[in-house]
Amino acid sequence: MAAWLCRALVQRNGRLLLSYPNSVGRLYSRGVGSSSPAPGALSAFQDKPRTVEDLPNISFFELIYRMVFQGFYNRLHELQIYNKQKYGPIYREGKKSVSVNTPQLLEEVLRNDEKFPTRGDLSAWKEYRDMRGYGYGPFTEDGERWYNLRVMLNKRMLHPKESAQYGDDINDVVTDFIKRLSYLRQCSPEEDLVPDMANEFYRFSLEGM
Q: Which residues pair with 90 in a beta bridge?
């Protein structure tokens, strides 16, 4: 599944990021907070209202070069740090995506989101689920259909009495995760290091869902 999704996402401009919601558009005209951008990255427009076109842009070909030839494909967190240092806390990636790289900006985006949000291009996930005959859920739906699903889930997942029934299953997942980390540490040369912690967290999150 992961390989199929990666291939599909690359065909759709390289990365799955935040597409242009209205909340991001409103963010441009209010500045970028107190974070320090890369020298000169935002100096041309930091004191005037901005549009999407004013933001520094990472082209699709540059993104492919960074991921494939510079080896960032399995170090995406380092790529985000590199891009923030070079382009500042907010920039475009490709034609349809905007990346925000500070907690303050991300908080503002999320707080200004609409009632029926649109969360980027999830067509690869939807195509995969269609191919397998699976239905959609809150991770793949958008707009009003996502909202209706979320309202139903909130009644179950956000009430302590309802969520308590999942406690044993979650505890089993956490216990297995701790045992695996201990095993990986023992297998490392120094017997105290987990080689790929990010990948283990991905697996833990998937199992927890």
A: 100
